[in-house]
Amino acid sequence: SQKIEQNSEALNIQEGKTATLTCNYTNYSPAYLQWYRQDPGRGPVFLLLIRENEKEKRKERLKVTFDTTLKQSLFHITASQPADSATYLCALLIYNQGGKLIFGQGTELSVKP
Amino acid sequence: NAGVTQTPKFQVLKTGQSMTLQCAQDMNHEYMSWYRQDPGMGLRLIHYSVGAGITDQGEVPNGYNVSRSTTEDFPLRLLSAAPSQTSVYFCAISESASSYNEQFFGPGTRLTVL
C-alpha cells in the first residue's frame, strides 16, 4: 500500500541546534515534495518545494533534501529558535494522481530556550 | 486582500443535520480544494476543483458534496452529518492545478457532530 510517514513522536531540541525532520514514502513516484508549517489552530503555511530532479533546496535557515532512491526527504532548520516550534508537514505530488497533494501526518517540533 | 476565508470557525451539529461550510478566495486562483484533518491522520483530500464548473473527488469524498459555480467560492455540503465527520476542515487554493504551485490554506472550520 502507499504510505507517507513522518516522525510520529514529537521532536524536542535545544535552541541553537539543528532540527532534522524526516519524511519517508513507499510505493509512490512523486514529482514534487512540499513542506508546510502548521501552528495550533491555524491552517498550514507553505515553506519549500523541491522537485524530483533536485537534491537540495535552501531558504534562509531551512534546507530540504530529496532522495528518490531512498524515498526520503529531510527537512533541516539550522540555528533553531523557540519561534520555530510548530508542526511540520510534508506533502507529495504524485504524477498519476491528477495533481493532488498527499500529506504526511506531521511532526511536532518543540525548541526549548 | 484576505486570501482564503472560511465560515463558520466553529460549528456543532446533531447527527442527521445538514450544513454548508463556506470557502471564499480573492486571489483569482483556479484550483480549490477541501481537506479534513484528524489527529494522527494528517490532511486528507475530500474534493477539489480545477476551475469553475469542474469538481472531482479526492481521497475521502463520501458524505460530502461540492459545487463550483464561480471562481471565488467553493462550498462544502454535509447532507446528513455523522459523528465520523467530526474534524477540522481546511479549504486550500493554488494558482492552478500544476503541481509546483504552493497551496494557500484558510484558517479552518472546527466541526463537532454529536
Task: Give the structure's gist in a few sentences.
The complex is a heterodimer of chains A (113) and B (114). Helix content of chain A is 0%, strand content 58%.
Explain the layout of strands and helices.
The complex is a heterodimer of chains A (113) and B (114).
Chain A: E1 3-6, E2 11-14, E3 19-26, E4 30-38, E5 45-51, E6 56-59, E7 62-67, E8 72-77, E9 86-94, E10 101-103, E11 107-112
Parallel strand pairs in A: 2-11
Antiparallel strand pairs in A: 1-3, 3-8, 4-5, 4-9, 6-7, 7-8, 9-10, 9-11
Chain B: E1 4-7, E2 10-13, E3 19-25, E4 31-38, E5 42-51, E6 54-57, E7 64-66, E8 76-78, E9 87-94, E10 104-105, E11 109-113
Parallel strand pairs in B: 2-11
Antiparallel strand pairs in B: 1-3, 3-8, 4-5, 4-9, 5-6, 7-8, 9-10, 9-11
Describe the structure in your own words.
- The complex is a heterodimer of chains A (113) and B (114).
- Helices cover 0% and strands 58% of the residues of chain A.
- With 113 residues, chain A is mainly β.
- In chain A, strand 9 (86-94) and strand 10 (101-103) form a beta hairpin.
- Chain A contains no helices and eleven strands.
- Chain A has a domain at 15-86: Immunoglobulin-like.
- The radius of gyration of chain A is 14 Å and the shape is globular.
- Chain B is mainly beta.
- In chain B, strands 2, 4, 5, 6, 9, 10 and 11 form a seven-stranded mixed beta sheet that branches. A four-stranded antiparallel beta sheet of chain B has the order 1-3-8-7, with no helix packed on it.
- The A-B interface holds A 4, 8, 31-32, 34, 41-46, 49, 51, 89, 91, 93, 98-106 and B 4, 31, 33, 35, 40-45, 48, 50, 56, 58-59, 90, 92, 97-100, 102-108.
